[in-house]
Amino acid sequence: xxxxxxxxxxxSTVKGLADDLLEGLDALASNGGxxxxxxxxxxxxxxxxxxxxxxxxxxxxxxxRMMRNTRSPINxxxxxxxxxxxxxxxxxxxxxxxxxxxxxxxxxNPMEWIPVTHVCRYWxxxxxxxxxxxxxxxxxxxxxxxxxxxxxxxxxxxxxxxLDVQVKCDPxxxxxxxxxxxSARCGRIRKCHLMDLTDLENLxxxxxxxxxxxxxxxxxxxxxxxxxxxTGDFTMPSELPxxxxxxxxxxxxxxxxxxxxxxTNQFVGLTHLxxxxxxxxxxxxxxxxxxxxxxxxxEEFTLTSGDISDLEVDSLPISPVGEDxxxxxxxxxxxxxxxxxxxxxxxxxxxxxxxxxxxAMKCHTWWPSEWSIATIVPPKTAARIxxxxxxxxxxxxxxxxxxxxxxxxxxxxxxxENDIDTADDIVPSLRTLLSFHxxxxxxxxxxxxxxxxxxxxxxxxxxxxxxxxxxxxxTAPENWLLALTPTELHxxxxxxxxLEELHIYPPYPQCHEALVNxxxxxxxxxxxxxxLKIMCKRDAYDxxxxxxxxxxxxxxxxxxxxxxxxxxxxxxxxxxxEECRSFV
Length: 584
What we know:
single chain; 19 strands
């Protein structure tokens, strides 16, 4: 062995030793070295020596490469900076969708960033030794059979880091050791999503405090519900057991389904609440109201109700609402009530005072469908939904049975269960819900107009409307135009006196004469249109249509400032504010 002082060794010295070693190996390989040391005269112990030499050289080569890689700029970064870059490279690794029917989501898999460990040893050691890189942890039925699988490895390597966990339960029963491992780590759980739960007894493992818990989702398996329906046992789990020893100070997101009540848990400080099929057999929603009272800072509330159609409407409790029982929710900006019994909507909405100017409200397919909006949301209740008092846009589309209302920064969407071909019984109902005095845009489509007099009264009542979009019905489309044409009104108010823009689609030939008469009559009465836009389907745009348009345009040129021919591929929808669009 060559004696060297490690304190003063230089890279050139190591390079010289490597050259000497290579020269010696060449001599051995060529059988040109000292006599008696050729390949044919190797002793039985020499293969062991060669294997040891190979290991030593491999280790030396690894150290040389590590030294070379360390000199690169990226490897000069501290591990803290490098792991931050890795996290940015992997992107936000949120837990997969909490919708058990959605199997398309592939996010939330640590395997997404594993390729960075194949670049160099420094990257590998940095990534594998960083506990925060092992989130989220997703247990699937196929991953629970062996503790050598990825989720268990993630748990082992994530020591000390907050945990984002999703367990998609096995229909045959999830292994006990999965719950035991999670139970021992309750204090580190930040997000906990339990999907397709088949046995509520498994929730008893979550009996330790969870000070870091921010998001909790518990969804019972649809198979359990289907099985109970087949056996005639329609009872759902009655009570959500006490979770995390009642200590979840950081909880902000809560999603539950198929529980009658959850009063044993004092969930406080929530910002997002999503409840599905949460009801008592009597239809009482006192437990939901109690939860809302505990969370006045709620920003999003979604309720999807279950099928309690076997109950009589009159049997559902309707408690009188006093000023002392109202729940102010100034932060609520998303309210969704989908497939709910009309009485449940009535009970909940009557208790809320909503004042967020960016409120987006969605009310879909209530039943019984014959309940009118005025019954579900009477005027006194509507007055407490302040954004509805500032509606500037209204769309009624009865081909899809939808009603959109849009304020300057908020929106509401109502959808009826059954298509309705006349709005005679709905517009008065809407007028109890909405304040029409500020209405500036009105969109109507898919409605069979049976009474021009009725709509003439409606148009006369909305004196501030400046833009109107009419989706003409193939049955007597000229009736719509007659309703906007000034005639012998017999004391009725002038139809839409402030109207400046009129958009109509599609341009049925039988309504051309009525359209010309409308424009001319309004101009003669001093209510001249600024813009008339005629919209036709894109696939119907041909020379014949252009010829008809030119004839109509020449007839109205002196009575309207601008006439435009435009196309559409699908019926237009009233403009929704950007912050409300994805929700409504």
